[in-house]
Amino acid sequence: MPNSHDPKALIYAPAGRDAQVAASLIDEAGLSSLSVADLNLFASSLDDGIAVGVLTEEAVRGSDLKPVAAWVAGQPSWSDLPFIVLTQRGGGPERNPAAARLSEVLGNVTFLERPFHATSFISVARTALKGRLRQYEARARLEALGEGERRLQTALAAGRLGAWELELSSMALSVSATCKAIFGREPDDEVKHDELIASIHPDDRDLVQASLRQTIDTGRDYSIEHRTIWPDGSLHWTEVHAQLYADRYGSARKLVGVCSDTTARKAAEENLRRLNENLEERVRERTRQVDAAHQTLLEEVAQRERAEEQLRQSQKMEAIGQLTGGVAHDFNNLLMVVLGNLELLGKHVVGDAKATRLVDGALQGARRGAALTQRLLAFARQQDLQVKPVDLAELVSGMNDLLRRSVGSSVSIETILPATLPPALVDANQVELALLNLAVNARDAMPDGGTLSISLREEQVVGGAGDLGEGTYLVLAVADSGTGMDAETLKKAVDPFFSTKEVGKGTGLGLSMIHGLAVQLNGALVLTSEPGVGTTAELWLPATEQCPETAAEGETLAPEAAARLRILLVDDDALIAMSSVDMLEDLGHDVVEANSGSQALELIRSGQRFDLVITDYSMPGMTGAQFAQAVRDIHPALPIVLATGYADLPAGTDIDLPRLGKPYNQAQLAKEIIKAMAGEAPPVSRSGRNAGASGARLLKADNVGDEIGDGACVV
């Protein structure tokens, strides 16, 4: 960020005392200045640290403005440097045709006709400075978002943990799909606690049960490694860790934990043990046959080193995998800050087409990040996709601008989208992510440019074919004219972590996640490729006779703001608190901020009056649910809204509160305030997906969690 901490005004006014007067007024506006003697020096002095440029029209009339125009055109996406031009004839084209040329070159320009009052110049300068400072804030938010995305991708690539919960009163077991796979079960299999205990190797079963009883009796963390016999008879090693959750009376309620498959690590350890035994034997043999055994002391050492490296890598991957859930939650909070500030920033740039486009682009990227985070959190809790009828032709058309920006100018896009196709039964957001991923892969396969073809067609499958059942399917095909893949590479294309890209350019998860999405939707991913010709990826998705939701059926306009309220906002994250306070104050409310549950309770107990409380759930020392219960003990009728990034609160959180899903926008915030003040409890979506991720101006109505068939029509 060059010079962004000490922004300056750059002045080019060579005639008379113009530069001195401008510098004096700039100083009154609270900004330091730098005056230059010629236009070339003005152009070379432009950088990110300049907050506003000041020019006189007569000084640049007839001059070569190409250096200045080149700098303006080359500004980074967050930047739109404001200029103030002092003129004798105003800035309108009817009185001053030359002003049109300056407007075209400078872009963000304000014309100030002389003579003018000093306060007019100071006001214009302060407005320009305020706009520039908001640009600096946008740059900081975008940089933070990029760093968060890199952390999230690292956690995605490393996480291999299965999640599980055991209710002690009923011994009801809830496990994730990854956990099922670790015990040799399919994602759709029903798994009970007794069945998993029975699958433990007989020699390890007593130890497991004894450790479980000890954890329940003492509250100590549960940590054990044991052998598991899969339904196919194969033997595997499983490592399990858990913590005991108790209710407020101290009674044990449930165990919550994670598990991982340590078969590879155990094999490496066993291999290492055997290698050590072999090595000792070889050492003894060496005393008898030094020459003959010499070449053989080297092979064993190399094997041992490889085994040790495998063991270290396995342990490292397990440790990193434990960060996945926490990083996803932290990234969700970061997106909350970015979305909130961008939405407020958008209100201040109305009428500025370029700034509006930049803010909208940043909002779109942040919402896609929010959808990616929700997908990770939902997968960890075995949440269902939000499947409903979708017009795929409309979906692809709506992504046209995003796709063109993503593939770049060297790749041309062709689309074949018949208008008479039936809807598909899919999760629209996940299909969008899959299409974007396929388009980016195609771009990378065409480094010198080429053609990307996106098409839709209807296919009938009779009697079932491969992974597809009988029925009607829509085929979303993405074809490129790139380098293509040979048969051996094509076989491994959908394997997790397999990538042909250089280190740091890909995680190897894109095609595997698209394949997993297709299977979850009862469809398939079909890849065909030939070296030198290109690759075609076909996403087969089930068709439906149900009608897609219309805006009137599934969406409603954002609610009007509630009456002016005095609101207590509780959040331990300073950035989130700042963003939420700004949104609430922009809605016209008085806001008091607290950074912990205990601090908020002190404010309530001091006798201050509040109309509404909005509290985060995940806070150190006292959770939002615990804080809300304490508030109800003091003021039972005080409305409380609970903000959380998770779809479901941990079991045992026995409090009925309206939920505000993170990340939320200002319209959702206003809507939940009105509901809370009216005593309404919003419905909870079974999919775990945040309805606000699709836009700030339209909100999903109360049927977000409805079943697919509700309200459907027949085509």
From TrEMBL:
Whether Cell membrane counts among this entry's keywords is no
Every PAS domain range: 148-219
Task: Give GO MF terms, alphabetically.
Answer: phosphorelay sensor kinase activity
Q: Which UniProt keywords apply?
A: Coiled coil, Kinase, Phosphoprotein, Transferase
Domain of life, per UniProt, equals Bacteria
Q: Might you give the EC number(s) for this enzyme? A: 2.7.13.3
Recorded coiled-coil stretches: 265-317
Give all residue intervals belonging to the Response regulatory domain.
566-677
A Pfam cross-reference name: HATPase_c
Q: Which residues form the PAC domain?
A: 222-274
Q: Is DNA-binding a UniProt keyword of this protein?
A: no
The top EC class is transferase
Domain Histidine kinase, by residue range, is: 326-545
Tell me where in this chain the PTM 4-aspartylphosphate is found: 616
Which InterPro entries does the annotation name?
CheY-like_superfamily, HATPase_C_sf, HATPase_dom, His_kinase_dom, HisK_dim/P_dom, HisK_dim/P_sf, PAS, PAS-assoc_C
Catalyzed reactions: ATP + protein L-histidine = ADP + protein N-phospho-L-histidine
Q: Which PANTHER family match?
A: SENSOR HISTIDINE KINASE, TWO-COMPONENT SENSOR PPRA
Name of the protein described by the UniProt record: histidine kinase
Starting at the broadest rank, the lineage of the source organism is:
Bacteria, Pseudomonadati, Pseudomonadota, Alphaproteobacteria, Hyphomicrobiales
